[in-house]
Design brief:
The protein is α/β, with parallel strands linked by helices and 285 residues long. The protein is 60% helix and 9% strand. The chain starts with a strand and ends in a 7-residue tail after the last helix.
Length: 285
Protein backbone atom coordinates (compact mmCIF):
# COMPACT_ATOMS: atom_id res chain seq x y z
CA UNK A 1 0.00 0.00 0.00
CA UNK A 2 1.25 3.47 -0.94
CA UNK A 3 -0.14 6.90 -0.05
CA UNK A 4 -1.24 9.79 -2.27
CA UNK A 5 -2.20 13.37 -1.49
CA UNK A 6 -4.71 14.94 -3.90
CA UNK A 7 -4.71 18.74 -3.78
CA UNK A 8 -7.20 20.92 -5.65
CA UNK A 9 -9.31 23.91 -4.63
CA UNK A 10 -12.24 22.51 -6.62
CA UNK A 11 -14.15 19.84 -4.70
CA UNK A 12 -15.40 18.12 -7.85
CA UNK A 13 -11.82 17.76 -9.14
CA UNK A 14 -10.63 16.24 -5.86
CA UNK A 15 -13.55 13.85 -5.81
CA UNK A 16 -13.01 12.97 -9.47
CA UNK A 17 -9.37 11.94 -8.93
CA UNK A 18 -10.30 10.05 -5.78
CA UNK A 19 -13.09 8.25 -7.64
CA UNK A 20 -10.73 7.13 -10.43
CA UNK A 21 -8.08 5.91 -7.98
CA UNK A 22 -10.65 3.76 -6.19
CA UNK A 23 -12.47 2.64 -9.33
CA UNK A 24 -9.34 1.14 -10.85
CA UNK A 25 -8.09 -0.34 -7.59
CA UNK A 26 -4.83 1.56 -7.23
CA UNK A 27 -3.14 0.60 -3.94
CA UNK A 28 -3.15 4.08 -2.44
CA UNK A 29 -4.24 5.39 0.90
CA UNK A 30 -5.86 8.65 -0.25
CA UNK A 31 -5.60 12.02 1.48
CA UNK A 32 -7.05 15.27 0.16
CA UNK A 33 -6.48 18.98 0.78
CA UNK A 34 -8.23 22.02 -0.68
CA UNK A 35 -5.19 24.24 -1.28
CA UNK A 36 -1.40 24.33 -1.23
CA UNK A 37 -1.11 25.98 2.18
CA UNK A 38 -3.21 23.28 3.84
CA UNK A 39 -1.27 20.61 1.96
CA UNK A 40 2.09 21.90 3.23
CA UNK A 41 0.80 21.89 6.80
CA UNK A 42 -0.39 18.32 6.28
CA UNK A 43 2.98 17.22 4.86
CA UNK A 44 4.85 18.67 7.81
CA UNK A 45 3.26 15.97 9.94
CA UNK A 46 2.89 13.13 7.43
CA UNK A 47 4.76 11.62 4.51
CA UNK A 48 3.19 10.46 1.23
CA UNK A 49 4.55 8.65 -1.81
CA UNK A 50 2.70 10.70 -4.45
CA UNK A 51 1.28 14.21 -4.66
CA UNK A 52 -1.34 14.90 -7.33
CA UNK A 53 -1.89 18.64 -7.33
CA UNK A 54 -3.56 21.36 -9.34
CA UNK A 55 -1.20 24.17 -10.36
CA UNK A 56 -3.35 27.26 -9.88
CA UNK A 57 -4.75 27.44 -6.35
CA UNK A 58 -5.31 30.17 -3.74
CA UNK A 59 -2.84 30.88 -0.89
CA UNK A 60 -0.05 28.61 -2.24
CA UNK A 61 0.05 27.41 -5.85
CA UNK A 62 0.82 23.85 -6.87
CA UNK A 63 4.43 24.48 -7.89
CA UNK A 64 5.26 26.20 -4.60
CA UNK A 65 3.63 23.27 -2.82
CA UNK A 66 5.81 20.84 -4.78
CA UNK A 67 8.97 22.81 -3.96
CA UNK A 68 8.19 22.60 -0.25
CA UNK A 69 7.16 18.94 -0.52
CA UNK A 70 10.48 18.04 -2.17
CA UNK A 71 12.37 19.72 0.67
CA UNK A 72 10.46 17.59 3.18
CA UNK A 73 10.71 14.36 1.14
CA UNK A 74 12.97 14.34 -1.95
CA UNK A 75 11.63 10.91 -2.97
CA UNK A 76 8.01 12.01 -3.32
CA UNK A 77 6.49 11.58 -6.79
CA UNK A 78 4.70 14.62 -8.18
CA UNK A 79 1.92 14.79 -10.77
CA UNK A 80 0.49 18.14 -11.77
CA UNK A 81 -3.11 18.66 -12.83
CA UNK A 82 -3.17 21.56 -15.24
CA UNK A 83 -5.23 23.28 -17.88
CA UNK A 84 -2.49 25.83 -18.49
CA UNK A 85 -0.19 25.40 -21.46
CA UNK A 86 2.21 28.06 -20.27
CA UNK A 87 5.99 27.92 -20.78
CA UNK A 88 6.68 29.69 -17.49
CA UNK A 89 4.84 26.94 -15.62
CA UNK A 90 6.66 24.25 -17.59
CA UNK A 91 10.09 25.76 -16.95
CA UNK A 92 9.45 26.08 -13.23
CA UNK A 93 8.01 22.57 -13.07
CA UNK A 94 11.24 21.20 -14.55
CA UNK A 95 13.22 22.83 -11.75
CA UNK A 96 10.88 21.32 -9.17
CA UNK A 97 11.48 17.88 -10.76
CA UNK A 98 7.84 17.11 -11.51
CA UNK A 99 7.31 13.50 -12.59
CA UNK A 100 4.33 13.92 -14.89
CA UNK A 101 1.30 15.98 -15.94
CA UNK A 102 -2.37 15.26 -16.36
CA UNK A 103 -4.28 17.78 -18.43
CA UNK A 104 -7.71 19.03 -17.38
CA UNK A 105 -10.36 17.95 -18.09
CA UNK A 106 -8.96 14.57 -17.08
CA UNK A 107 -9.03 11.86 -19.75
CA UNK A 108 -9.39 8.45 -18.09
CA UNK A 109 -6.94 6.67 -20.40
CA UNK A 110 -4.29 9.34 -19.80
CA UNK A 111 -4.90 9.23 -16.06
CA UNK A 112 -4.44 5.46 -16.01
CA UNK A 113 -1.28 5.64 -18.12
CA UNK A 114 0.32 8.12 -15.72
CA UNK A 115 -0.74 6.23 -12.59
CA UNK A 116 0.36 2.87 -13.99
CA UNK A 117 3.78 4.31 -14.75
CA UNK A 118 4.13 5.90 -11.31
CA UNK A 119 3.07 2.69 -9.60
CA UNK A 120 5.65 0.71 -11.56
CA UNK A 121 8.34 3.21 -10.54
CA UNK A 122 7.27 3.02 -6.89
CA UNK A 123 7.40 -0.79 -6.99
CA UNK A 124 10.86 -0.73 -8.60
CA UNK A 125 12.17 1.77 -6.03
CA UNK A 126 10.77 -0.28 -3.17
CA UNK A 127 12.40 -3.44 -4.56
CA UNK A 128 15.75 -1.64 -4.90
CA UNK A 129 15.59 -0.32 -1.36
CA UNK A 130 14.72 -3.76 0.01
CA UNK A 131 17.59 -5.31 -1.96
CA UNK A 132 20.02 -2.79 -0.46
CA UNK A 133 18.64 -3.31 3.04
CA UNK A 134 19.00 -7.06 2.62
CA UNK A 135 22.62 -6.69 1.49
CA UNK A 136 23.34 -4.54 4.55
CA UNK A 137 21.69 -7.13 6.81
CA UNK A 138 23.75 -9.88 5.19
CA UNK A 139 26.89 -7.79 5.64
CA UNK A 140 26.21 -7.13 9.31
CA UNK A 141 25.50 -10.81 10.00
CA UNK A 142 28.37 -12.18 7.89
CA UNK A 143 31.51 -13.62 9.48
CA UNK A 144 34.70 -11.61 8.84
CA UNK A 145 35.93 -13.85 6.03
CA UNK A 146 32.76 -13.22 4.00
CA UNK A 147 32.26 -9.52 4.64
CA UNK A 148 34.56 -8.33 1.88
CA UNK A 149 32.55 -10.22 -0.76
CA UNK A 150 29.32 -8.70 0.51
CA UNK A 151 30.91 -5.25 0.61
CA UNK A 152 32.00 -5.53 -3.02
CA UNK A 153 28.47 -6.52 -3.97
CA UNK A 154 26.98 -3.62 -2.03
CA UNK A 155 29.28 -1.07 -3.68
CA UNK A 156 28.59 -2.53 -7.12
CA UNK A 157 24.87 -2.34 -6.41
CA UNK A 158 25.06 1.26 -5.21
CA UNK A 159 27.16 2.48 -8.12
CA UNK A 160 24.95 0.93 -10.78
CA UNK A 161 21.42 1.28 -9.44
CA UNK A 162 20.87 5.04 -9.71
CA UNK A 163 19.32 5.85 -13.12
CA UNK A 164 21.38 8.11 -15.38
CA UNK A 165 18.45 10.17 -16.60
CA UNK A 166 18.86 13.66 -18.01
CA UNK A 167 16.40 16.53 -17.68
CA UNK A 168 14.56 17.64 -20.77
CA UNK A 169 13.69 21.13 -21.91
CA UNK A 170 15.84 23.19 -19.53
CA UNK A 171 19.63 22.79 -19.76
CA UNK A 172 20.02 24.48 -16.36
CA UNK A 173 17.88 21.94 -14.57
CA UNK A 174 19.59 19.04 -12.82
CA UNK A 175 17.56 15.94 -12.11
CA UNK A 176 17.68 14.30 -8.69
CA UNK A 177 19.11 11.12 -10.22
CA UNK A 178 21.83 13.02 -12.04
CA UNK A 179 22.70 14.96 -8.89
CA UNK A 180 23.15 11.70 -6.98
CA UNK A 181 25.34 10.20 -9.71
CA UNK A 182 27.48 13.36 -9.69
CA UNK A 183 27.73 13.21 -5.91
CA UNK A 184 28.72 9.54 -5.93
CA UNK A 185 31.33 10.13 -8.63
CA UNK A 186 32.79 13.06 -6.69
CA UNK A 187 32.94 10.98 -3.51
CA UNK A 188 34.69 8.11 -5.33
CA UNK A 189 37.33 10.55 -6.59
CA UNK A 190 37.79 12.40 -3.29
CA UNK A 191 36.90 10.01 -0.46
CA UNK A 192 40.43 10.29 0.98
CA UNK A 193 39.93 14.03 1.56
CA UNK A 194 38.10 15.63 4.47
CA UNK A 195 34.81 15.80 2.58
CA UNK A 196 31.95 17.81 4.04
CA UNK A 197 28.28 17.93 3.13
CA UNK A 198 28.71 21.64 2.35
CA UNK A 199 31.35 20.85 -0.30
CA UNK A 200 29.29 18.05 -1.78
CA UNK A 201 26.08 20.09 -1.85
CA UNK A 202 27.87 22.96 -3.58
CA UNK A 203 29.29 20.56 -6.16
CA UNK A 204 25.84 19.33 -7.21
CA UNK A 205 24.01 22.66 -6.69
CA UNK A 206 21.61 21.41 -4.01
CA UNK A 207 21.08 22.42 -0.41
CA UNK A 208 22.89 20.35 2.21
CA UNK A 209 19.71 19.09 3.87
CA UNK A 210 18.05 18.23 0.57
CA UNK A 211 21.10 16.35 -0.70
CA UNK A 212 21.48 14.42 2.56
CA UNK A 213 17.86 13.23 2.47
CA UNK A 214 17.93 12.59 -1.27
CA UNK A 215 21.14 10.54 -1.07
CA UNK A 216 19.76 8.32 1.71
CA UNK A 217 16.47 7.85 -0.16
CA UNK A 218 18.04 7.12 -3.55
CA UNK A 219 21.15 5.17 -2.52
CA UNK A 220 19.93 3.45 0.63
CA UNK A 221 22.88 4.48 2.82
CA UNK A 222 23.98 7.85 4.15
CA UNK A 223 26.76 9.88 2.55
CA UNK A 224 29.06 9.05 5.47
CA UNK A 225 28.31 5.33 5.22
CA UNK A 226 29.15 5.41 1.51
CA UNK A 227 32.43 7.25 2.17
CA UNK A 228 33.34 4.73 4.88
CA UNK A 229 32.64 1.79 2.55
CA UNK A 230 34.97 3.21 -0.11
CA UNK A 231 37.68 3.95 2.44
CA UNK A 232 37.52 0.49 3.96
CA UNK A 233 37.60 -1.20 0.56
CA UNK A 234 40.76 0.74 -0.38
CA UNK A 235 42.35 0.15 3.04
CA UNK A 236 41.82 -3.60 2.73
CA UNK A 237 43.38 -3.57 -0.73
CA UNK A 238 46.46 -1.75 0.54
CA UNK A 239 46.79 -4.04 3.55
CA UNK A 240 46.83 -7.14 1.35
CA UNK A 241 49.01 -5.83 -1.49
CA UNK A 242 51.61 -3.59 0.20
CA UNK A 243 53.90 -3.47 3.22
CA UNK A 244 52.83 0.04 4.15
CA UNK A 245 52.44 0.92 7.81
CA UNK A 246 48.93 1.11 9.23
CA UNK A 247 49.24 4.82 9.91
CA UNK A 248 50.26 5.51 6.31
CA UNK A 249 47.36 3.45 4.97
CA UNK A 250 44.99 5.31 7.24
CA UNK A 251 46.31 8.64 5.91
CA UNK A 252 45.89 7.53 2.30
CA UNK A 253 42.24 6.60 2.79
CA UNK A 254 41.36 9.71 4.80
CA UNK A 255 42.05 8.91 8.47
CA UNK A 256 44.64 11.15 10.15
CA UNK A 257 44.44 9.33 13.46
CA UNK A 258 45.80 5.77 13.37
CA UNK A 259 43.86 4.64 16.42
CA UNK A 260 40.59 5.85 14.93
CA UNK A 261 41.42 4.19 11.60
CA UNK A 262 42.13 0.86 13.31
CA UNK A 263 38.97 1.13 15.40
CA UNK A 264 36.85 1.88 12.30
CA UNK A 265 38.45 -0.99 10.39
CA UNK A 266 37.78 -3.46 13.22
CA UNK A 267 34.18 -2.30 13.54
CA UNK A 268 33.66 -2.48 9.77
CA UNK A 269 35.26 -5.86 8.98
CA UNK A 270 35.02 -7.59 12.34
CA UNK A 271 38.78 -8.22 12.44
CA UNK A 272 41.75 -5.98 13.15
CA UNK A 273 43.82 -4.59 10.30
CA UNK A 274 46.86 -6.58 11.49
CA UNK A 275 44.86 -9.81 11.67
CA UNK A 276 43.66 -9.35 8.11
CA UNK A 277 47.18 -8.63 6.89
CA UNK A 278 48.51 -11.74 8.62
CA UNK A 279 45.76 -13.87 7.14
CA UNK A 280 43.97 -14.64 10.40
CA UNK A 281 40.24 -15.36 10.02
CA UNK A 282 40.55 -14.38 6.38
CA UNK A 283 40.08 -16.08 3.05
CA UNK A 284 42.08 -14.76 0.10
CA UNK A 285 39.92 -13.23 -2.65
Amino acid sequence: MYSILVVDDELLEREGVTFLLRKFGYPFQIFTQANGKAAIEFLQGASVDVICSDIKMPFVDGLSLCEEAKKLNPAVKIVLLTAYNDFSYTRRAIRVHVDDYIMKPVVVSEFREVMDRLLAELDASRAERERRRELLRVYEAAPPEQRVKVLDEILHELQNSVPADEPEGDPMAVSDHRAIRLAMAYIRENYARDLTMDQLAEKVCLSKGYLSNLFKNEVGVSVMQYITMLRMQKARQLLLTTNMRLGDIGEIVGYHNQSYFCLTFKKFYGVTANSLRLGENHEDP
